[in-house]
């Protein structure tokens, strides 16, 4: 493959990735801009940056005339270089600081809900998929259909009955109100993926274990779980992405507001966007996406190994 | 690559996040206004305050974080140590309302627009406030001055009586506490008006002429300027009521069939839902009603001068960057514009000019009426009476409930002028509705608009949500030339038929009484022109 | 493939936790919704049995039914085509890069936008690109085509197409990753054999590469179909299904009926019909899926 061709590919990829990244750049850019700036243009270098740079530049050239600046309360004050620099940095980071104050408690809740859900989905999904993939018994096909069909039902309609159910089970205002339904629904796709993967494994692996007299549980712990490693990250990523954006359910089941997750916290912020800064809102978006970005950086390789391992045969 | 090096950043990230997320000792995770612990409080009242007064937010990113509501709550909790008020933010979506109210999990005090309330009142989801509004406000009474409004009746404390009482549901009961006011106005670019030699229009014809001139104007770079920025929500809601009032006002003596004795002094000639339903059955508000046709025709005329994309919610950018000369929006805009230090032009506000006989033969010549109203509409939900037996009738539950008593006391407390001013006047966006609380200077133009006569009816708030949904989308189609006037009116007639049928199914109005009044007013109507023909009897 | 026949009892014991959760939290509500479709039902009010009347009303009288089904079909088809072409090409290009470092960087770069919330995306498309002074209209003015400018999402002629084209250039990171994985599982022997046959460039792409990622393409297709038939949030935010009913899809109408119009039973009937459509498509696919697996076995 010639170098020219590689450059051409790079050119195409860069072009497309710029277009694709536009919403992300937009989000990050708005973290540092005030509402007024936001209403003057969709994109611009944040004033807070420009100001910080010019003050810093002034300080370097030894210019020490006092600077007039608006503080957080909008009052104009005359400041020396050092104070001005501190104030302009404060202004630049105002959005992220406010956002962090709001979403911080939600981050911890999210961590709990997401981890419990992922663990549940992986354990239940792999066990059920193992049985469905490796055994034939009465009602086998019907069972698979029974499970898979749930992917096809519109979620809007089950909102009310699901809520009444969770309430009558006494789960309102607990983590379980989110975790249990998330596992119940999330495991379906996991079963689908795990089953396709287990279908492709050679039978000898299991046969030898059975000859040694291993029971279901032994086989599950010693063979199935270790074998499913490559696609664990696939299931985990898909599951986390699936529950990440769901804001309505946490809202409805947390009537006391103590178990909100990031998505519902972001919704609070966005519905009160009139009453707050856009920079706060966008900073909250940006901060809450950091864990996902870290996850991507570490998980894409195992993800690809998982996908290539034969799990994704539709 | 050794594993330790590869995962070092990850481990660092995890450690950092654990440190960042670890809850600091004794910091309440709830952003509520109180510092007390809930176990000490006998009543924990949940208050969904809505966007305008949320503690610690910066409205429109301007000024200091809000403290007013927080301080008033602190005073109330000091007065009632067994009570804690929790301020919540809730989504305004119907799914939330329906699930929470249906299961008795909603906040005690909600902030929901009445059109979402009226459809559900017969389900016992909301507590009617009339019995309390008709009695004294105890906090005014304890101040001892019998001349103060509220000493005899809580109702008397409200400045805008017509609007506040006009929030009564079709069952005649008031479920809504009109906490503050919002009114619309047309903001215009004074600098541009001066440059083009334009004056603030007094009549509809002048208004059209102004918009023609702006449309013909080209900026230095050759681009056009949109004369009026407005969105479909404003067409569906505001324009419908304004134009309807302009064209039907002269008919009112012949078609205003019912006078509600308590509301009539404030709502002169208001057409309630049962009157609209009856009149529709008599052929009004149909393709055969020439005035009704004209309402929509005038709207399409106005659309020629507006932005093309009517679904755009946020038109402020076009106004601020001077690509639009006028924007029709509500009073909080004043605060937003005054907070923008890099605006680069002067602005002013005027109200929609009235129709003349040249505009339409049916024009009454009356000034355009008030269409604004309550911004923050507070309702008390069924959660407030959760301490009573749900099988009892609402009246008895209301009488028995201790919790409700405290919730009402809180609402009475925030209506005291000194408390109300702390909340509503903390920044100038909405207008106070309590006598004794001054309207802030920047909002004065809107206080003047609110002194006008109140609208004849509020179309989209009278019927069910389906009616307004279909009217809006078909109106948008009509305004964007996707359907002609007859096609639109056909839809609208079916829509109104369905809405009337749904109303009649839910409540049984006294149609006989309406029919008698209708007959009695026949001589008055005989002098009027172009009334719709009654439907041919088969 | 050899699998053991087992007494169902122990098997059922292991799948039991899954089934209990599924039955409680998914099937119970689904059954409730199915049953509700037979009732005139409003949350918080009395209900009465109406049989299949809602189905008849939707298919027979509701003026939105067939136009919105057509909209759904158009939007789903376009989405399927887009999600099966652009990301596939990008994935192939990334795969063609000589160094793993660059491949890795591009994979991450295309994945990043997944974290951007829908609100921001909506703002970008509705306000920044399609509005009166949005990029599209300014572009047209710039090249002297100002008579083509319009309110893209408001104009009945362009509203549906504008919705369909949201998300340009359609390079979803998830799809790229799936296709990339497909390409990287192509055995080296296949590449060598095709090179020997003189099969290069586009010819190779269509004759070797695409058949090798067929199963990934099918997975995306299924997910797109399910999402396209159920989804409506995008449209709800951008146009509410208007102007008129130009961009309404059955899912959106179902939502309005359930929560705004107080017609839960009617909404459930629409939901059951949508379920039937997806179920039918999936059964068709499962039949086809058998044959494709057999084919792979042969190869």
Task: Give structural notes.
The complex is a heterotrimer of chains A (314), B (538) and C (299). Chain A has 314 residues and is mainly α. Chain A folds into two domains: 3-94, no CATH class; 95-311, MetI-like fold (Orthogonal Bundle), CATH 1.10.3720.10. Chain A has helices at residues 3-31, 35-40, 47-60, 81-92, 94-134, 140-148, 155-168, 176-199, 204-211, 216-227, 229-244, 248-253, 262-271, 278-311; strands spanning 67-70, 76-79, 135-136. Chain A has a two-stranded antiparallel sheet with strand order 1-2. In chain A, a hairpin with a 5-residue loop joins strand 1 (67-70) and strand 2 (76-79). In chain A, helix 5 (94-134) packs across helix 11, helix 5 crosses helix 13 (262-271) and helix 11 packs antiparallel against helix 14 (278-311). Chain B is α+β, with helices and mostly antiparallel strands and 538 residues long. Chain B has two domains: 38-157 and 377-429, Periplasmic binding protein-like II (D-Maltodextrin-Binding Protein, domain 2), CATH 3.40.190; 189-197 and 204-314 and 323-328 and 360-372 and 457-526, D-Maltodextrin-Binding Protein, domain 2. Chain B has helices at 3-21, 68-79, 94-102, 114-118, 130-133, 138-141, 161-165, 190-195, 204-216, 232-248, 252-255, 273-281, 290-303, 316-320, 332-338, 394-400, 402-415, 417-424, 444-450, 459-462, 465-479, 485-506, 511-520, 522-526; strands at 43-48, 83-88, 109-111, 177-178, 180-182, 184-189, 226-229, 324-330, 347-350, 373-374, 377-380, 431-432. In chain B, the strands form four sheets. Chain B has a four-stranded mixed sheet. Chain B is globular. Chain C has 299 residues and is mainly α. Chain C has a domain at 65-247: MetI-like (MetI-like fold). Chain C has a two-stranded antiparallel ribbon with strand order 2-3. The longest helix of chain C is centred in the last third of the chain and has 35 residues, at 264-298. Chains A and C meet through helix 1, helix 5, strand 3, helix 6 and helix 7 of A and strand 1, helix 1, helix 3, helix 4 and helix 5 of C. Strand 3 (135-136) of chain A pairs parallel with strand 1 (4-5) of chain C, so a sheet runs across the interface.
